[in-house]
Amino acid sequence: MTANSRIWHIVLILTVFSTPLVIMYAYQLIDSIAQPDPGSLVPGDIDLSSWRFLWERIDAGRPSIWAVTFNTFLFASTTAILVTTLSATSGYALSRLNMPGRPYFLGGLIILHAFPTITLIIAIFIILQFLGLFDTLLGIILVKAALELPFGVWIMKGFYDTVPWEIEMAGVQDGASRFRVWGELVLPQVKPGLAALLIISFLSGWSEFVLPLVLAPGSSTQVLATYMNAVIQDDATADFGLFKAIGMFYSIPVIIIYLVFQKQLMNIYGGGTKG
Amino acid sequence: MELRLEKFTKRFGGLTVIEDMDLTVGSGEMIALLGPSGCGKSTTLFAVCGIHKMNGGRLFFGDRDVTTLPAQERSVGVVFQNYALYPHMTVEQNIGFPLKVQKRAKADIKKEVARLADLVQIGELLERRPAQLSGGQQQRVALARALIRKPDVLLLDEPLANLDAKLRLEMRSEIRRIQRETGITAILVTHDQVEAMSMCDRIALMKDGQIVQLGTPKQMYSNPRSQFVAGFLGNPPISFLPATAGKALSLANGHSLTRPAGLDATGELVLGIRPEHFGPQYGQGMQGEVVFVEPQGREELIDVRLDGGGDIRSILPSGTPIKAGDRIDWGVASDSILAFAPNGDRL
After folding, report:
1. Considering only CA atoms, which of B163, B1, B157 is closest in space to residue B78?
2. Å between A127 CA and nearest CA of chain B
């Protein structure tokens, strides 16, 4: 008996429960390229007009989709790089260095991670206003990175914990400085963790909505999430084909990233160094 | 190069692990730090290589005082118990890493790596990664990496503990051969007395942070300073029997033995009898029953319960027609009996 036939009942249950999702995703695509009549599920003729936002502005006051996409990419990638770099160093410190207050720091990380962003938003707003970073990409990048950091540091600490001490001792005995030992001997062991963290924080930045909405409401700093929100809110005629096309456009990078980096993403749950 | 530890003291928090330990390892000598776990042998090793700071005392390599030097500036090669090879580097990069740190020329490194690989006989494995090597091969790589800097001292931390029995035997003589060929001063940390006795010039037997005896394996075996030393060395182990010394040595179970020459103590004591000193070839006088026969191929290990109490071991050539349950009446080589005071000191 193959594994597939042994677990058929599990597959069946999962299929039943995920069918509605699959249908919705399917119509996200179908409705964007073939407009059915309202209320009907039968696709009509192929019609690419819903995708017009790609080559023209949907209305005059709105920034071009490509400027918005660039913003989103800049926001997500800078956040991801910032989070990964800082987590790579602070995770090492927490895993290896015997500093005062370390247990409290670790406890603090968990609490911070569990903290809902939305409860901090007023305070963050005031701070950004004070710093002159309100309604700038830099402002929301810093805020997003700060909020993602506890998770990143915690994950990286876990990865560093699995690297044997002896490797570092051997490096020190071989004459290398602590910094070189970290960079040349330890960091390569946690590469799977870094890759996973980079991807996860990029995706998290890509899908961030609340922070840009509240802290960078201007049209020059719009990201895809807020752009889509604005289109839906402003549109008096409710062009669902357009909404779905934008949504599709927004989620394509996410789907590609998941397909390409599945293995790296799974690493974070394994937590091991064997990639 | 000679290594000298003077009045070495190590504390962890308020706990003193080692106090005022002195140890001198001669140039080119291989010495074993032997002892049960928790005796401080690894602590000593880590202090010598610079991973642990010393809380007191001084450490000299030759005439150079290295007590306060960081690990990077001491010239020490270390082989760790799990080898600690760098998993993302090839064997060649692993062995060459210490020279790369010293910023030596590439061609130079390549030449040195080839020389070391030859010495430890892994020339054909240079392109592999550690995960593709067997335990014994990893061990050889670790040795080569430790030796490539031509260190003053080589430290081996339980190097054979992770190998299977057959490889252990092979690596035992390999490590000794490499140590002899390079003429390096070496310290071997182990809890296995067979390793210590077979590989090293001298053994420092440690207990509770103290060296209880320092000597050649032969001296330690035939002339232990205390009951602990006698019990730790020797496989199969020595048997201890309580006795009272008068005109003869009367065992607690009623048997009596001739006093060995040179023993002038009287009163309560403990006798140590090695298995090879008890058997039918030494006459008669000790009656008992065989409780267990353990065939070991070339020899048979026989556990005997003496009449009136007390267990004693004998080792006989195999083929001896003895089985569990047999009654025996064997003798002891009385001149080889070791006698200890009740506090464990040798008499």
Report:
1. B157
2. 44
